[in-house]
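so the lab meeting is tmrw and i was supposed to have these ready like two days ago... anyway. pasting both below. for each one the top line is the aa sequence and the line under it is the C-alpha cells. i havent really looked at them closely yet so no promises
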Amino acid sequence: MRPLIGITGNQLLEAVPAFSGISVAYTPIGFVKGVQAAGGNPLIIPIGAPETAADYVAKIDGLLLTGGQDVSPNFYGEEPSLHIGATFPLRDDFEMALVAEALKQKKPILAVCRGLQILNVQMGGSLYQDLPHEYPEMRIQHQQKTDFKYATHSVIVMEGSHLHGLVGEKLSVNSFHHQALKIVAKGLQPVGYSPDGLVEAVEATDPEQSIVAIQWHPETMIPEAKNMRLFFEDLVARSAR
C-alpha cells in the first residue's frame, strides 16, 4: 500500500482570466509530483471548517504543510505590523486544527516555509513579522531574486539530528520568505540555521512525534536537485511505518 499523504491546499482569492473569475482550490504541482515520485499517494486537502480536521487526519498516513500567505500575528499575541503581508484567517484556523490533530494522532509531518511557521505558532511559538524591519542581524538575501529552482544560500545542520542523517552537515537551499521563526515552540528543536542565525529547520523534541519542518522550498528544486527529493522520500517512509 502506498502511504496516503495529505497536502494542505490553498485558494485563489482574486479573479484571474485563466479561470474566468472563478475561485480555485489548489496546491503547487511540485508537492504532488514530489510525493508521487517518492512512492506516496497525494491527497490535496482543501481549506475547510476546523471541525473537519480530525476526519482528514484520520484518513491520511502523513501530513505535508505547504507554503503561502503570512500567518496572522493574532495567534501569537501581536498586532499586525505595517510590513506584514496578506493573511488568510480561514486557512490559518483550518491548518491550526490540522496540526493539532496530526500531533494528537501522531501522524508524521513535513512542513515547508509557511508550513514551518504555522506549525511553530500552533505549538506556542512566534514569528518575525518582517525580517528587514525586525531582525537587525539579517545580512543575506532571504527573498531571492533568482529563479526558485536554484539554491541561493546555505543552511548549517546540527549533528545528531534527523535532518543531518538525511542531508549531512550543510546544504544549499532556495529562499523566499520575509517572515521567520522568532520564539521556537517548546515542543520543537532547531536543527538548521542560515548563515545570519535564523532558524531554518526544526524537529520535534518528543520522540513519539515525527516532524521535519524547513523554511525553504524543496518542491521547486526538484528534479534538478536530487537531495531535495529526500524530503519527500523521507516523509513517505516515515508515513509507511
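ok protien two:
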Amino acid sequence: MQATCATLATPGRVNEDYHAVGPDWAFVLDGATAPSDVDSGCEHDVPWLVHRLGAELARRLAVSDRPLADLLAEAVESTCAAHADTCDLRNPSSPSSTVSILRAGEEIEYLVLADSPIVFDHGAIVDDRVERLPSYTQQAVRDLRNQPGGFWVASTKPEAAYEALQGTLRDVGRAALLSDGASRYADMYALGTWPDLLDLLEKAGPAELIAQVRKAEAAAPKPPREKHHDDATAVFLSF
C-alpha cells in the first residue's frame, strides 16, 4: 500500500483534522468545531481530542487485526479514561470527531463514522445521517448526537463505533480518505465526480485537490449550515 497525504487548516485557525498511515492501514479524523457559546463540559479542546484519539487508534491498528469497530471502541474508551477525572463526559456536547478507517489485506476493510467519506472507484462510502436530522438548532443537534434516530460520532460513547458504516471490498486499486473539507470537491462544489476526484489525487496529489477546493470556497457564497472554509485532509492510497 502506498500513500500520499495533505492537510490544510481553516485560514486563521488551528487544524482540527488528524490523519495517520501505517503499512496496511490509514485513517482520517475530523474534529467537530464547537460553537463558542456551548458548554462542552470539557476542559480540553478539539485538537486535544483528535490527537489523543488518533494516537490510541494508531497504536491498536499497528498491532491488532481485530475488527475495526472493536479497535475504535477501545480507542474511544481509553481517550475517555484520560480525562474522566477532569471533565463531564455525560455532557452530549463533549468534543467529538468523525472517523474513517481503511485496512488492506486479502480484502479492503473500511469503517466510516459521520461525514468523512472513503472514496473508491465504484463510488463513495458516505455516512449522511447528519444531513437527515429533523432540526439543526443547537439544542436539537445536542439531543440527537450519539442517539438512535440521530447521528453518531466518536466522543464519549465507545458503543458509537458499532454504529459506523462498515464493510469489505475486493479488487480495489485505489482509494481516498477525506475529511468533509476535502470532499467538498465532489459533494458541495461539484468540481468533478468521485472518480474524477480519485484521478486528480492520483495525477496531481492531495495538495492540488485541497487547493482547488479552497479556490471554489473563495469564489462561492457561504453555504447554508456550513462554514465558508473548513479544515481539509486527503489521504490517497494505491494498492
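from a quick look at the 2nd one: The chain has six helices and ten strands. The mean pLDDT is 96. will dig more after coffe
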